[in-house]
Amino acid sequence: MDQASAFSFDQSYCGLPPTLETLWAGWNFDPVLLVALVVIGLIGGFTLRHSSPRRQLALAGAWLLAAVLFVSPICALTVALLSARVGHHVLLTMVVAPLVALSLPPAWGRKASPLLPLVVSTVALWLWHAPDVYTSAFAHPAIYLLMQATLAGSFIWLWLTLLRNDAPLAAGLSALSSSIQMGLLGALLVFAPAPLYLPHLGTTMAFGLAPLGDQQLAGLIMWVPANLPLMALVLWRLVGVLRPNRAAEQ
């Protein structure tokens, strides 16, 4: 029996790997997750009831996308496809995280250096995509939830400093550094000569993808679209660096 067929998904948080025919049935109605979403939504809504519409919309968008990522069949799809799980992580770190950061009090992050959250988020990203550590997330729901919490938490912290820091040059360089390391990880997945992730060796063909093709698609997702929010922030921060010079010339 080969490793792929012997791999067990019995403790996978999002269930067994689906096929195209069974995917739509793969909703995740974990009561703990549903209660957590309701509690977070209620607390967030109550806390921001007198805040600006911008912060309220940011939190609502983050909450809605997080609910889709963890409740809808997207969760089940990440069990079968590495590209789906990488896409899941990209949406969590590049969309949900900055929306949560925008919903936080405006004074937060203004004086905080982005260096430490940059290091922590980079370590979290590379650690959880190391093949053996990645595989461990299928061994128990607690490890899976730890993966998601550390990725989300570290990138919320990073985005808070990137968006709010009073030093635009430092924030822009940190965003560029995060983009570079994420692109490097994506490139490694694209150019790896063989599939690296044991859980997906026997699950991708149900979706018309060979394991190596699925891995290459995952790398492309991390290499290109994942970098767009960070590069947009780099450009925005660059404008912030140049603006005082234009004002001085006038």
Automatic annotation (TrEMBL):
UniProt key word 4Fe-4S? no
The regions listed as transmembrane in this protein's record are 31-48, 60-84, 90-108, 115-131, 143-163, 175-197, 217-236
What topology does it adopt in the membrane?
A: Multi-pass membrane protein
Q: Which UniProt keywords apply?
A: Cell membrane, Membrane, Transmembrane, Transmembrane helix
Where does this polypeptide localize? Cell membrane
What highest taxon heads this organism's lineage?
Answer: Bacteria
GO CC term (a single one): plasma membrane
Query: Is Transmembrane helix there in the keyword field?
Result: yes
What broad class describes the main subcellular location of this protein? membrane
Name of the protein described by the UniProt record: Cytochrome c oxidase assembly protein
* UniProt source species: Devosia ureilytica
